[in-house]
Structures are given as C-alpha cells and as structure tokens.
Amino acid sequence: MNAIFRLALMSLLLLFSLHPARARQDVTAQKSVPAAKPAAAATVDAEYRIGPQDILRIDVWKEPDISRTIPVRPDGKISLPLLNDVQAAGLTAMELAASLRDGLSKFLNSPQVTVTVSEINSRRIYLTGEVSRPGALPLLPNMTVLQALASGGGFTQFARLKNIYVMRTEDGKQVKHLFNYKEVVKGNLAEQNILLQPGDVIVVP
After folding, report:
1. What is the reported pLDDT for 44?
2. Do 147 and 162 meet the contact criterion of CB atoms below 8 Å apart?
3. pLDDT digits over 20-56, tens only?
4. Candidates 1.20.1250.20, 3.30.450.40, 3.10.560.10, 3.10.20.90; CATH matching 124-204
5. Are the CB atoms for 197 and 122 separated by under 8 Å?
6. How far is CA 112 from the centre of its chain?
7. How far apart are CA 54 and CA 119, in angstroms?
8. Fold of 55-119
9. Considering only CA atoms, which of 150, 141, 135, 157 is closest in space to residue 195?
C-alpha cells in the first residue's frame, strides 16, 4: 500500500514539474518569432525637382505656426509666414529646405527646416480622343507612348490607330510626334514609341 502511495505521489510531483517547463518553452517560442516589419513608406527620388501643383510638407522645428502642408501654385511659388512668396518649382526638396532656412535665419535662430514632397501632381501626361478612359495620367519613370495607351482602357470602335500622335511643347512651340499603333505592336517603327515628358498629350483621332 505504501508503495502504491509513493508511486502516486511521485507521479503528481512529476506532472507539476512539467508545467513550468512547458510554459517556459511557450514563452521562448513566442520570443523567437520575429515581429513583422512595417512596410516601408514610399519615397520620392532625392533628385526629383518640384513642379506646380505638387503638395509639400514643410516642417520647421519648434515652429508649429510656420510648419504646414501646402500646394505649389501654378506660378511655381509657395507662401509661408515671414517669407511670403518663395520659389519652389525647379528645386529639389533639399534645395528648397536650404532656401527656406536661409530666409528664416533673418527671423529665427538657426532654424531647422525639412521639406517633403507628399504628392507629385506636376508630372502628368494626358490621353484624349477615341480611348475608353481619357484624362490625366501620372507620368511614371521611362513611360512610353504604348504604356500610356495601355492605361487608357482600350480604344473605341472609331479610333484610327495608324494616326495617333503626341503633342509636345518644345522651345515654346507645339510639335507633333506620330505614332502608328498597329505597326508598333508588330515590332515595327520602334522609334515612334518615344519616352513621354511631363505635359505630353496623346491624341487618338
């Protein structure tokens, strides 16, 4: 009888001793699983030059009355307290930050300025004519005429695919660049599938 009692007691002790170890294993397993990293925020190329209608975030350290999110006006300028109108178009974010820092130095002691391009609205091209979705498109890096047309949702039944052209302003003049869709998709006339520039208008007659 004593032997049976001792055996039961040893079994209970063994059972209780296993639970803390199991709990420690669970905690260790949880710690060993790496936490998911947040997705990296989209960034604008440091060499990107600001254009009209872009949205900028301007932060001046410890100056909440000056810090703000503002659009670049059609004339390429922005307005800030103390500085009034400041040229922004044509500058990189770092160049604009340096310009603002120099201007604010007349009023503030060693201002620290950061400029971030929140939205790029100046780099656009336009589709018009016999396409399903005419309108403005964001100009992606190295975008060609064929790629832009692919974003237009296709052509209408009346589209004259051999007579498409790109209207571009060069040296203050409107220049027409021809694009024969039927030939380009066959692998011919590759020179007509030009890289697009901001402001280009693709016309599908």
Report:
1. 65
2. no
3. 444 444 434 343 334 333 333 345 678 888 998 899 9
4. 3.10.560.10
5. no
6. 25
7. 6
8. wza like fold (3.30.1950)
9. 141
